[in-house]
Amino acid sequence: MADANRKPWLTASQQIDHLKSRGAHFSLMSEDDSRAYLEKNNNYFRLRAYRLGFPKVEEGARKGEYANLDFKMLVDLSIVDMLLRYEMLPLTLDVEHFAKVKLLKRIETEGEDDYKVVSDFISSYDCMKPNGTPCNSLKGEILRCKNSPYTGGLIAKYNDFGFPAWAFIEVISFGSFLYFYKFCANRFGDREMLNEFYIFQAVKSLRNACAHNNCVLNNLSSGKPIYRPRHDVMQELSGISCIGPGQRRTKMSNDRMQQIVTTLYAHRKLASKGVSEHRADSLAVFVGRMNRHVEYYRGNLQVSTGFEFLAKVIDAWFPVRAD
User: Which InterPro entries does the annotation name (predicted)?
Assistant: First the structure.
């Protein structure tokens, strides 16, 4: 039986014909230029993902076709999405860095033996396989990196897993670091750190999406998010006077927008002044590019209001220094 999800492979010319059959126009970008773009610059199936949110004709001969979609709009959205990922990934790396700095300082302040806290955390992963063989997934994660040119030296130095905290956080994944952060939060009875753990989970999800080059802006519709926005983030958003409660709730009901805003919040709270100012300059350039062709999206409220909301948050939380 044929798989209904299997689609035929289309040449660039066939891809253009397919878009035209769905009502797409080629007024802002010629068919020849569009064909060259599809052949050299982008993947058609990735590019067409940005069509979501563009309104369709509801009646008449063109019923079901896109009402006012030009190929250039898809190209522009894909470029803005790429630039957004290029902005967000460094922010997530900054958050990871400053979270590690904060944790090491907290361990020091608490008077903890940093070898002991690491040993206890690693031991918390001890388990038994069904056949009775002992196992530890965290040790397995570390050993898989023993030949890494970046962390292999540290792993070899502490081949008995007797890491001090400063070395341990350099050889584990961001995900494992976050669970170490949570472990320490519970150990110290620190509710602020525990709340940060959940905030950092959103940062991690966005980091993974950016690092894997996933589309972000192809779905900004409101709905029921996987996780409710953190109270601290919503409280901080409420301080932006140009964002009303309705817009705040609606936009933060989208998982992608929620992760973007949560990352901006975490960076604002953790990063140093110098790093924040540097990112503010870069984000301002991004907002300018994001809004360069904002008139393209007047009929696409999902995109136009998403851009507006994101620009308001960036302008409020990352103001550019006056020269």
Answer: Abi_system_AbiD/AbiF-like
Q: Are 166 and 271 members of one domain? A: yes
* Mean pLDDT for the stretch of residues 3-8: 66
**Structure tokens, 312:** 């308001």
133 class by beta-carbon count within 10 Å (0-12 exposed, 13-18 middle, 19+ buried): exposed
Condensed to tens digits (0 to 9), the pLDDT of residues 6-56 reads 766 778 888 899 889 888 999 999 999 999 998 888 888 888 889 888 888
Residue 158 DSSP one-character state:
T
Separation of alpha carbons 145 and 152, rounded Å: 6
Please state the domain count of the chain: 2
- Nearest Cα neighbor of 101 from 187, 211, 196 is 196
Tell me: the pLDDT tens digits for 128-183? 888 888 888 999 999 999 999 999 999 999 989 999 999 999 999 999 999 999 99
What is residue 54's predicted lDDT score, i.e. its pLDDT? 86
Token output for 289: 């590019």
Q: How far apart are CA 293 and CA 79, in angstroms?
A: 11
Domain identity same for 236 and 271: yes
Per-residue pLDDT at 80 exceeds 50:
yes
SS3 66: strand
Between CA 240 and CA 180 the distance in angstroms is 33
One-letter amino acid at 275 equals: V
Report whether 79 contacts 245 (CB < 8 A): no
Query: pTM (2 decimals)?
Result: 0.92
> What φ, ψ does residue 128 adopt, rounded to 5°?
-120, 135
Mark whether 181 and 54 lie in a shared domain.
no
- What pLDDT does 2 receive? 53
Q: 57 and 113, same structural domain?
A: no
Q: Can you give the residue range of the structural domain that contains 281?
A: 76-317
Residue 279 CB partners (closer than 8 Å, separation 6+): 87, 90, 91, 94, 267, 271, 318
The type of residue at 177 is: F
Whether the per-residue pLDDT at 307 is higher than 50: the answer is yes
